[in-house]
Amino acid sequence: MIQKPRGTIDILPGESEVWQWVEKTIKETADLYGYSEIRLPTFESSELYKRGVGETSDVVQKEMYSFEDNDRRSITLRPEGTAGVVRSVIENSLATGVMPLSLYYLISCFRYEKPEAGRSREFYQFGVEQFGAQNPAADANVISLGYDIFKNLGLNVSLEINSIGCRHCRPKYHKALHDYFDNCREDLCDTCLDRLNKNPLRILDCKSPVCSALAEKAPKTVDYLCPECAAHMEELKKYLDAAGIKYTVNPKIVRGLDYYQRTVFEFISEDIGSKSTICGGGRYDGLVEELGGPKLSGIGFAMGLTRVMLALKATDKLPEISNSPALYIASMGDNARLKSFEMSLALKKHGINASFDQVGRSLKAQMKYADKTGARFSCVLGDSELEAGKATLKNMSTGESQEIDIADVENIAKLVK
Ligand code: HAM
Predict the structure, then answer these.
(1) Considering only CA atoms, which residue is closest to atom 11 of ligand 1?
(2) Given the CA of residue 266, which atom of ligand 1 is nearest to it?
(3) Ligand 1, residues 101, 123, 125, 288: which to mutate, most atoms within 8 A of Cβ?
(4) How far is the CA of 16 from the centre of ligand 1 (A)?
(5) Contact yes or no for 129/82 (Cβ under 8 A)
(6) What is the pLDDT of residues 356-368, one digit of tens each?
(7) Is the pLDDT score of 336 beyond 70?
(8) Do 307 and 333 reside in the same domain of the chain?
(9) Shared domain check, 232 and 142
(10) Does the global pTM surpass 0.90?
């Protein structure tokens, strides 16, 4: 038997309705903040991610699904959404209209990672990107959108923020980090030894117990910020306070992708076992230029929907969603089945999910089926019902019944709504 590839999931009926509810809740919240949807290719040229996400990130170094296509072009399945959105903003000159430009996306992403709970090789993200607003108010507004989404989904999250400075102050911080870790280089894991010269910031992300213990005492970004970056961070805090959004400053948050500057933040789920980042984001003011576009600031986040689903399950917050028919029209004989088909179509025009026998079952088997599908009402059509133009409508849970006029679809729709 052929099985699905490792690290992928099948979203089956029963669960897909919950995904749809999550996506609807998220979209409605994004609408309130004035965001528009953008839909982009699932694969892009590998160059985009190398330059956009950054050569020293784990994503580019070890996790990309890259291949050569038949024209020998290097193609990569998107590992995240930001680089593609920036590419599209530049390619379609989207930054020439009304600013700020506020975009959202619902996408699947691909990373070659070790699969475990909440970590898969194909996973789903809801993300937002906002361009052309540099004021800390924009940082707070983007964070507030994420915060509202979790509130509307009924999930408990905590917010951690940090600033990793800009291209002016970061070199000083890099040097301090390099000097600190260089002093204990014999304790670093092989990956971090390599990171030491390329990008010491990445060492702060290392999961190995020895490196993360060393990271605890490492110099902190906030102590190396230039006055502009420090002021940006202080303003952001003011805005978050005004929004009533609680946060902690966590100097260890540096994010795993190379494009960030100044504000970085993560929402941590309190519901999924160990501390788990359910959403991460930050400001990336140099990225549009880096990818060949105009000087344009950017900020955004992405939340992992697989982790959202895990959190909903863990808290028992899954909404009751059913796709059960409102009415099952049982039939006896070919004429009655034809009529039940016509009735089901007419009821759909009134927004009613009505189903009928498509299999040719006995009446007993049809009623069993109606019960299994959770139909709320049923009626039976036979030759005598067709002749009289009347049938009996039965409430499946109370057993109450009443006569209906088969031709009066509008009334039937009202009764079963
Ligand atoms: P990221 O932190 O790489 O950021 O991913 C965002 C979220 O996607 C994570 O917090 C996590 O919930 C989820 N996620 C990441 N990898 C996996 C995986 N292997 N399995 C399941 N879920 C996963 C970005 O992708 C940035 N593009 C976010 C951003 C947008 N920054 C600015 N704008």
Answers:
(1) 304
(2) 10
(3) 125
(4) 21
(5) yes
(6) 999 999 999 999 9
(7) yes
(8) no
(9) yes
(10) yes
- Taking Cα atoms as reference points, which of 239, 294, 227 lies closest to residue 265? 239
What's the pLDDT score for residue 410? Answer: 97
What is the average pLDDT across 209-223?
92
Q: Whose CA is nearest to atom 1 of ligand 1?
A: 280
Say whether both 269 and 392 belong to one domain: no
Task: Assess whether 164 and 86 both reside in one domain.
Answer: yes
**CATH code, domain carrying 279:** 3.30.930.10
Q: How many angstroms is it from 63 CA to the middle of ligand 1?
A: 13
Per-residue model confidence as pLDDT tens digits over 81-105: 999 999 999 999 999 989 999 999 9
Give yes or no: residues 88 and 154 share one domain: yes
308 & 395 share domain: no
Instruction: List, for residues 274-289, the tens digit of each pLDDT value.
Output: 668 999 999 999 999 9
Q: Last residue of some domain: 286, 314, 342?
A: 314
State the pLDDT at residue 274.
Answer: 62
Which atom of ligand 1 is nearest to 284's Cα?
32
Classify residue 125: in a domain, yes or no: yes
**Strands (E) located in 120-260:** 122-131, 157-163, 248-249
Question: Is residue 215 assigned to a domain?
Answer: no
pLDDT, one tens digit per residue, over 244-262 is 999 999 988 988 888 999 9
Domain-located, residue 299: yes
CA–CA dist 136, 147 (Å, integer): 16
Among the candidates 314, 339, 373, a domain finishes at 314
Return the C-alpha torsion angle 303, 304, 306, 308, nearest 10.
Answer: -30
List, chain by chain if needed, residues with CB within 6 Å of any ligand 1 atom: 80-82, 111, 113, 118-120, 123, 125, 127, 129, 256-257, 277-282, 300-304, 306-307
Q: Which domain holds residue 388?
A: 327-416
pLDDT tens-digit map of 360-410: 999 999 999 999 999 999 999 999 999 999 999 999 999 999 999 999 999
CA atoms within 13 A on the CB side of 66: 16
Atom of ligand 1 nearest to the CA of 118: 21
Backbone angles phi, psi at 16, to 5 degrees: -60, -30
Flag whether 200 is in a domain.
no
Query: What integer is the mean pLDDT of 224-238?
Result: 97
Q: How far apart are the first and last CA of the chain?
A: 44
Domain identity same for 117 and 237: yes
